[in-house]
Amino acid sequence: MKKQLHCAIAVAMAAAATVPWQIMNKGEGDATPQDGSWYRINNMDADDPSAPLEIEIYGEIGSWGKTAAQFLAELKAADDGKRQIVVAINSVGGEVGDGFAIHNALQRLGERVTARIDGFALSSGGVVAMGAHKVQMHDNAMLMMHNPWAWAAGDSEEFRKLADIMDQMLEGIIASFKHRPNLTVDDAELRRMINAETWLTAAEAKDMGFVDEVLSGAGSLRNSAGLRVLNRYRNMPDSVRAQVEKEPEQPTEPDVPATDDPATTDPQNSDDPDKAALAALAVAECSKAGIADHADVIIKASGLKDEAAVMAAVKQAKDVKALCVLAKQAAMAPDLIKACATVDVARGKLFDKLVANSGQVEITNHPKVDDQPAPSAKAVDPGAVYAKRRNQQTASKGAQA
């Protein structure tokens, strides 16, 4: 029996990922600062030992190939075990697993840690903030919680496993928010808020016990990286949406040399030996990764800042190409790489493409049957059957007479 099913095909996780699924923010767009990382550790060598160690989480957690493990290793190396630690957050979220790891690490550091929400603390960004001993929030900042969300591909069993994992992730998110000692909402209300995708102002967050102190001024939503990633959140406040629709601010970074300048692609023509070496590295790594025709894009995207920036740009392009191949949309890879699209952006574009092409799909549990199969035996002639019966009846009557 055939059934009609309108299908929206979800794109598989990025190639080279080490886990079968990624639980992430529901949205598309690049939410990561273009400097090769989503965090910075500042004030490590302060002359004043009383000055706090400041950590900035100003990007999409877990992006650029930087994991929570790397973040925590750098934090451990910078922390002397005595100084106060301030975690400044302006993030649309990111990998939930990384968010849990950072949350728990901040809890272990105890009373020395203060989280300061400068702009957005959304999704995993909020999970991280809840791990601090004290939470401050600027009066124009936003805190948001929602259910975990994922892309996946596979058979029905894979989707059942994914649903179970997401339910477990949800319990972890709930537990993280319940770690705040002064909550005024019970478990049922917290679950309702998370399921409803709830946005909170600083005053609301403080009233509910998620935040300990509201700060005046200085914070800014406008400066948050990648506002367009929020476009798919269903309950985004009008005040935030208005800022999303504004034209993005122009970057103030130094101009990157044009890609058609031989000095940027030919190490022999560069006046800067370091940049020449980095350009040569970019060309070599692109060739090794099977994206040699995109070397100019990698050079421009990395700005030839350092080896890490070059390698991050190469990995991003390689992963985007692999994702397109996995989604059977290899033709989209060149344009996405040229646009310096992240894997998450590529997923969104591929998803839109596949949904647009999906149309109606017939699903049947029966094998294909030939409408006019060749006869496997001689066909029966009803007339011959009846004639044979009449002959038998006539013969029988004659025998009785």
Can you walk me through this structure?
With 401 residues, this protein is an alpha/beta fold. The protein has 2 domains: 31-244, 2-enoyl-CoA Hydratase, Chain A, domain 1 (Alpha-Beta Complex), CATH 3.90.226; 262-341, no CATH class. The protein has 14 helices and 12 strands. The protein has helices spanning 68-78, 96-109, 124-129, 156-178, 187-195, 202-207, 238-244, 262-265, 273-289, 295-302, 307-326, 333-338, 343-358, 382-400; strands at 2-6, 22-24, 39-42, 53-57, 85-91, 113-122, 134-138, 142-145, 149-151, 198-201, 213-215, 360-364. Strands 3, 4, 5, 6, 7, 8, 10 and 11 form an 8-stranded mixed sheet that branches. It has a two-stranded antiparallel ribbon with strand order 1-12. A two-stranded antiparallel sheet has the order 2-9. Helix 1 links the parallel strand 4 and strand 5 (85-91). Helix 9 (273-289) crosses helix 10. The radius of gyration is 30 Å and the shape is flat. The two termini are 58 Å apart. The relative contact order is 0.13.
